[in-house]
Amino acid sequence: MSARNKSLVTGLVALLAGGLFGFGLSLSTMVQPEVVLSFLRFEDWGLMLVMGGAVVVTLLAYQLAPRVLGRPLLGERFHAHVSEWNRDTLTGAALFGIGWGLCGVCPGPAIAGLGTGNWDLLWAIGGIAAGALAQGLMASRR
Amino acid sequence: MQQQRFRVRQIIAPMMNDSLLATLFPLGWQHYLAGGLVIGAGVALLFVLTGLVGGMSSVFSSTWSYLLRQPYFQQARYLDSRGWRLAYAAGLIGGALVWWLAFSDGQALSTSVPVPMLVIGGFLVGFGARLGNGCTSGHGICGLGSLQWPSLLAVLTFMATAFLTANLVGWWTA
């Protein structure tokens, strides 16, 4: 495959995978900040089922595919999610949680929610984009 | 067979009785589990076909790389992934649109969360997710799916601060 075709295929797969992700977020009502906030206030434990269901399927794929297939069906290698535990991860996660608790919106549902005609979420998307911008500018300076 | 099924129901029912389920999930539980499995299927599909790990918050940094020349945004990990991450985000909207057109009553959704909370909360979400290298999908789904213990700690951390914040706001505005 030429490089151009390869990135086209990757883009199409990402579009389809994102489609499933967005459909799941809507079906599970996670695109509604009110539902997320009701979980955070211990009124409805649904988010645990959403996360649990998603983690189990992902875990199976991440653990089995590299062993069974060796390499991805349309790609060169399996990438890995590598996270480190350091001060940035701690501070970042803590700030993320404060923001999430304030508005009930996180990056996936903010974007997906637009597909349900919820234009209010553009405010949250603007906030998230500004936050990512501020973080990147700060990281460039130090 | 009929009798056996009846017995199973007799044993399970007292443990998972309607009132417990209704307390934990007042709006029902099936759509939560089904939605979670579909989300997982999306992340799994991306991985099995392309080998890519699809957290959602990176798109907010990688897209800035089209406009900004600062070294942070010009890292290879953003330049190499910005194209498919935008397609992934577009798919997210498309998938939600399919749900909206096919399975909802066609009313546009809206939120009662006030605009300042959306903006300020969003800012902290964006800043925090990128500083901590992951959000609910990055650390929560992909990180836990990769059995990364730093991701577990990150999830526990943001769950804790989110519980605190949401309840404080709840009391404040009650």
What key attributes describe this structure?
heterodimer, A: 142 residues, mainly alpha, 6 helices, 0% strand, globular, B: 174 residues, 9 helices
Name the poorly predicted regions of chain A. none
**What is the percentage of strand-forming residues of chain B?**
under 5%
What letter string, H or E per element, gives the SSE order of chain B? HHHHHHHHH
Largest sheet of chain A: none
Number of domains of chain A: 1
Taking all Cα atoms into account, the compactness measure Rg of chain B is 20 Å
**Rg on CA atoms of chain A, Å:** 18 Å
Structural class of chain A: mainly alpha
How would a textbook summarize the main sheet of chain B?
none
Described by the principal axes of the CA atoms, the overall outline of chain B is globular
Proportion of β residues of chain A? under 5%
Distance from first to last alpha carbon of chain B: 52 Å
Q: How much helix, percentage-wise, in residues of chain B?
A: over 70%
Biggest interface in this structure? A-B, 119 and 121 residues
SSE order of chain A in H/E notation?
A: HHHHHH
Describe the oligomeric state of these chains in a short phrase.
heterodimer
Description:
- The complex is a heterodimer of chains A (142) and B (174).
- With 142 residues, chain A is mostly helical.
- Chain A has one domain (3-44, 83-141).
- Helix content of chain A is 71%, strand content 0%.
- Chain A has helices spanning 3-27, 33-40, 46-69, 87-103, 107-112, 121-141.
- The longest helix of chain A has 25 residues, at 3-27.
- Chain B has 174 residues and is mainly α.
- Chain B has a domain at 111-174.
- Chain B has 9 helices and no strands.
- Chain B has helices spanning 2-15, 18-24, 30-50, 58-62, 76-79, 82-103, 115-131, 136-145, 149-173.
- In chain B, helix 8 runs antiparallel to helix 9.
- The relative contact order of chain B is 0.08.
- Classes of the chains: A mainly alpha (142), B mainly alpha (174).
- At the A-B interface, helix 1, helix 2, helix 3, helix 4 and helix 5 of A face helix 3, helix 4, helix 6, helix 7 and helix 8 of B.
